[in-house]
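Appendix B. Raw example, untouched.
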Amino acid sequence: LYLSFTVPHAGGWGDAPADPEHGQPVPTDLHYAGNDWPDVEKDHAAVITYLDAKVGDLLGRLGRLGIDDRTLVVFASDNGAHIEGGHRKEFFNSTGGLRGQKRSLFEGGVRSPSMARWP
């Protein structure tokens, strides 16, 4: 099974071409709505929480099917932290202090989160 998500990703709410990147493509800020954060950061936190829940759903389904003990699950991103749509990589320390971001050749742009679960 190959399962691909498009979040987190900038853009989705603006009127192109005048304002193509505004916020995240997520319909709700979940429990972050009341936080005193910029809207784009609430959006970013919500999409990360959404993705975490979906990965949890997948792991739960593997367990219910009885195949979790013989299934390799690989989670990977395609690039480092982005700065599109007004998101500030410093807000959540998205690069872990590494210099650069998506589309740069510094470590903050080319290192990406990856993990494997092999029971």
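End of appendix B.
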